[in-house]
Amino acid sequence: MTDSDKRPIAVFDLDNTLADTGHRQRFLERRPRDWDAFFAAAPEDPPLPEGIALVLASAEECEIVYLTGRPERCRRDTLAWLAAQGLPEGRVHMRRNDDRRPARRTKLEILKRLGRTREIRVLVDDDELVCADAEQAGFAVVRARWTAPSTELKVAQEREGRT
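The structure assignment produced for this chain is given below.
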């Protein structure tokens, strides 16, 4: 077992935790929602200073893991965005392209799997339902409240299982 295997894990969401999705919310306000355009615009997300600072501070003691509801088809853009922000490398857990379950279910499933073999120091996420379920399961949570909540994104996360 290497030293990095013994470090606790800090788990970070991406959208509205590290990446400001405000500029692409308009694609979710249309009917039907334009998911391709919403995700295609993700590489242009400005970083959120509060979230970035928390990742960098956490990386001093923890291995960083990214846990997002973005679909797997966004992996290349997501990895490039993380690198462009100077964020620590870490495993990136993404939703299968065909997975439409609510974010709180998919994320909690992955958290529990990670927690079987490693200490999870904290989950940082903006989704209240994800945070509440994670706390109920015994995980320490920091609610990312540094962006204005998006009703459209909340509906998408919970009802449509899209992000």
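Interim note for the steering committee: The mean pLDDT is 89. The longest strand covers residues 63-71.
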